[in-house]
Amino acid sequence: MEEFMHHGCSDEVTELMEMLSKLHFKSLLSVHDAVAQTDYEPTLPPIPDDYVADEEDSVKIVSLVKTKEPFGATIKKDESTGAIVIARIMKGGAADKSGLIHEGDELMEVNGVSMEQRKPKEILSLLACSKGAVTFKIIPALYREEVSSQRKQLFVRALFDYNPEEDPAIPCKEAAVGFKRGDILQIVSLEDETWWQACHQGEGKSCPGLIPSQQLHERRVTLQRPRALFRPRTPKASDDAKVLEDVDYRAITGFHIAGLRRSFRLGRKGSVAREVARSRRWSTGLHSSIRPPTYIEVIPYHSEPTDRHKLVVLVGPSGVGVSELKKRLLISDPDCYAVTVPYTTRERKQQETDGVDYHFVPLHKFEEDILLHRFIEYGRYKGHYYGSSLDSVNRVLADSKVCLLDMHPSNIKCVYTAEYRPFVVFVKPPRIEELRLTRRRAKFICEGEDKNPVRTFTEEDFEEMIDTSESMEREYGHLFDKVLVNGDIAVAFRELKTAVLEIIEAEVQWIPTEWVRPSPTASRRSCSHLTGWI
Ligand SMILES: Nc1ncnc2c1ncn2[C@@H]1O[C@H](COP(=O)(O)OP(=O)(O)OP(=O)(O)O)[C@@H](O)[C@H]1O
């Protein structure tokens, strides 16, 4: 400062010198220094003489002021130790806001009264008559901090609908969160084995509520398992009599789109399906699950427009309408959607073009590709091989089109990866009354207009379709992003188209954590309750 004075540079410097040397400014500085040096730690109650040394580290004294509102916590007796522990902290309540009491903490004393040999009811009445500050002596739950910080960002996709209004077992309907299959939920607490706490993604964690835990939902579904589970199916003579032929959709659409043919999806009715099923090589064990679908752990994937969902997989029982829906989607926008061109070892027919209708390949080449696991599905029909390959999926994707693929759910594993990020739609039949009505009416409308025979269904076909659908959903439901009920075809098609457009345009996709973190130990670390689905 003196230097400035020497240079005589400004009036402002002189003025500043005067201000800083004034008495009130000097007093302010001295108060600041005094405050900074003082120790303002709160005065804690003295440690009682009877504490053993080990307890010093783990015991915590917490004082909460009681208002008209409850503390927002529940307690229970730990049956193995007899200790009274905090069972649940309701988010946003006084206990939660204090940040001092946590689930799993053990209550040793309340206002100096020991909790030993007490029943939860006695403690509640003790709390009810206390006024003002209530002091709790607590042993904090082990590793609580670590566990809760790991769980902060846990998201799951719900794989079932839940309506608390229809759940007689929910402890408190007002404190519950309802959801639909496909909703993304942020799990806030997994502490309770029966009721987790969660909120809808994007709603913030301000108002989470109770949802059934994975364990609870699995138990419920297992108890309700339908009688059809082990119902033997009587083979029908008509099964073998039906022969699936390629369908020329020129007759239907008035123009030709390559690949618009019946697929040879495993599980189809008829000879192709049977032969394909007999000759399939992939084990279904790996990907199937006998556990009912509950929740699947997901993470957000932020995609570039060029990098959006491009593979749509349609699955469903034979006859449900997978080909019909695929065909309608394709025709609705042939610039956007495409199907794969299948491979075959049979002779090319006169009107067919290689690489457009089929890739016609020699037997040895097809068999070599089988050994190289190049097929998603393949099978034999009338002595010839037919198959769809991963290469043909890649070709459609390279052409920047959305690839529509139908397959048996046991084969989804071929494309259930971060590379393909498939959107899997399960096409499900409606209830049998609607199935009868819609399929018979459809036959009536179509009759006579189309040279391709419209498929007719018997009562047994309907029952079988429903049974197969139930078992597919039970076994592979965890892989389905969307369940589409195909009752009225126009309604189902609109719903499918909306869902597909939404997913291919979405900036954020919620993908299974497993796709980016395949190590089972890693996923177990992040969420021990949610492993073992895929
Ligand atoms: N919602 C619907 N209402 C009426 N008819 C329908 C409906 N959905 C499909 N169909 C008709 O049912 C028949 C079977 O449909 P589709 O061929 O699409 O079944 P799929 O699931 O592909 O079965 P598969 O794999 O055995 O061929 C077709 O004649 C189709 O037009």
Automatic annotation (TrEMBL):
Pfam families the record matches: Guanylate_kin (PF00625), L27 (PF02828), PDZ (PF00595), SH3_1 (PF00018)
Ranges for domain Guanylate kinase-like: 309-501
Domain L27, first and last residues per copy: 1-43
Family annotation (PROSITE patterns): GUANYLATE_KINASE_1 (PS00856), GUANYLATE_KINASE_2 (PS50052), L27 (PS51022), PDZ (PS50106), SH3 (PS50002)
InterPro entries, A to Z: GK/Ca_channel_bsu (IPR008145), Guanylate_kin-like_dom (IPR008144), Guanylate_kinase_CS (IPR020590), L27_C (IPR014775), L27_dom (IPR004172), L27_dom_sf (IPR036892), MAGUK (IPR050716), P-loop_NTPase (IPR027417)
Domain PDZ: 61-142
Keyword terms of this UniProt record: SH3 domain
CDD domains tied to this protein: PDZ_MPP3-MPP4-MPP7-like, SH3_MPP
Residue ranges annotated for the SH3 domain, each copy included: 151-221
Gene3D superfamilies: 2.30.42.10, L27 domain (1.10.287.650), P-loop containing nucleotide triphosphate hydrolases (3.40.50.300), SH3 Domains (2.30.30.40)
Entry similarity comment: Belongs to the MAGUK family.
Protein name: MAGUK p55 subfamily member 7-like
Protein species of origin: Knipowitschia caucasica
Highest classification ranks of the organism: Eukaryota, Metazoa, Chordata, Craniata, Vertebrata
